[in-house]
Amino acid sequence: MPHLSSDANLMMITLLLDLDDTLLDTNVDAFIPAYFSGLSAALADRVAPDTMLPALMGGTQAMMASQDPARTLEQVFDDFFYPQLGIPKAELRDQIEHFYDETFPTIQHVTGQRPEAVAFVDWSFASGHRVAIATNPYFPLKAVHHRMRWAGLAPEVYRFALISAFEGFHFTKETGAYFYEFLGQLGWPSDPVVMVGNDLDMDLLPALKVGLPVFWLRDGRDGAHPGIPQGSFADLRRWLEQADPEGLHPSIETPEAVAALLRSTPAAIATLTSGLSDQKWLCEPLPGEWCLTEILCHLRDVDVEVNLERLRRVLAEDNPFISAEDTDRWAEERQYRRQDGRQALADLIAARKELLALLDDLQASQWSRPARHAIFGPMTLQELVTFVAEHDRIHVQQVWKTV
Predict the structure, then answer these.
(1) Residue 220: its pLDDT value, please?
(2) How many CB atoms lie within 10 A of CB 301?
(3) Strands 112-113 and 24-25
(4) How much is the pLDDT for 115?
């Protein structure tokens, strides 16, 4: 069965597979007009086509530009799209759901399957790899599921570890935070990871910029970007079988990578904890371990009282001394379990946006500003922020395991 793994390959690799023109021949020049025509027809009794197109394009552009960990892409799209139409979402919900249930599947005829893609996915599962669908999350999950079925990779058959869609993601591939939000929602696996895609500008260069290993799926070889592993699905399989796993781990060593991870953390946690009951927020995985509320209160207070203060000092002072802080004891001293975990998440997002605003305004030279840490000794601001990112990664793993 394609969804079962074996011990055939003991080196598990997390494979982030693009969908359109990687696993599925999408034929964008035919797909986009067919999609727009179908949606326009579905809403023709309420929305004029010349109103629909700019609203749809503007909503897509708003998603591409969004770097807000507080809002999902669905919320970003809705906040632009429906005001442009002048109609509340609730009034169009049934028609749009009917479109994705009945009309959208008829667009399949402009796409085509790639048997070599299905064979590669089957091999990946059989080899024990973690396989995920890392499509740019412009569409609702229902639409992504349809396109997966068109590719011969139905979600009812293949147990993909994660599928990105606009309901549960806060960033698109244009922002590097997408890739770390994806890994965060997977629980930040410690195994190697590779982003596989066909689009150099959309799939690969943004991933490379934030330190993710990539493979460029392409038929021809014209010598472009010779430093990027590239080729067919057969080439990809050989490359994975021969790759050194130590070279396939994310490299969070640049300001862009660090900032992307920090931006992704509250977004990934928001999705992981969405819809949980009050009881789940207070459930301990094991006796003595922190519940979700305690984890979120800890992250909030560390950002507000430690991380922000340290960054401000390093930016304002000449080589300041950074004292060590025992923040774990705050869980008992401040009675985190009695607090509101959802509010702690909201407060963390607010504090993190303040921290990111500081980082976004930095000049390249400021990342090298020096400080002296009580435990780690001399360090730069970038090294200090990298510690924050590693702290984030550990607690995202903890949240995922707790959920």
Answers:
(1) 63
(2) 20
(3) antiparallel
(4) 97
Q: What is the pLDDT of residue 153?
A: 98
Report the distance separating Cα 178 and Cα 98, nearest Å: 29
Residue 134 in 3-state DSSP?
coil
DSSP reduced 3-state for 54: helix
Q: How far apart are CA 228 and CA 243, in angstroms?
A: 13
> In this structure, how many other beta carbons lie within 10 angstroms of the beta carbon of residue 88?
10
Q: What is the pLDDT of residues 138-184, one digit of tens each?
A: 999 999 999 999 999 999 999 999 999 999 999 999 989 999 999 99
Q: Where are the alpha helices (DSSP H) in 160-214?
A: 177-185, 205-209
Measured distance CA(109)–CA(103) in Å, rounded: 12
- CB 296 within 8 Å of CB 395: no
Region of 136 (left: φ > 0; alpha: ψ -120 to 50; beta: rest) is beta
User: Comparing C-alpha atoms, which of 183, 218, 178 is closest to residue 13?
Assistant: 183
Where b means 16+ CB within 10 Å and e means fewer, 174-210 reads bbbbbbbbbbbbbbbeeebbbbbbbbbebbbbbbbeb
Amino acid, res. 94: D
- Return averaged pLDDT per consecutive 10 residues of the chain, 403 residues in all: 41 95 92 92 91 94 96 98 96 95 94 97 96 97 97 97 98 95 96 95 94 89 76 95 91 94 98 95 91 98 97 96 93 96 98 96 95 94 96 96 94
Q: Amino acid identity of 127?
A: S
Measured CA distances, 5 to 12, 128, 249 (Å): 10, 5, 22
Q: Which residues pair with 371 in a beta bridge?
A: 379
pLDDT at residue 7 in the model: 40
Q: Which helix (H) or strand (E) holds 380?
A: strand 377-380
Q: Which residues, 6+ apart, have CB-to-CB distance to 328 below 8 Å?
A: 298
List the alpha helices (DSSP H) in 243-329. 255-273, 278-281, 292-302, 308-316
AA letter at 369? R
Res 400: pLDDT: 96
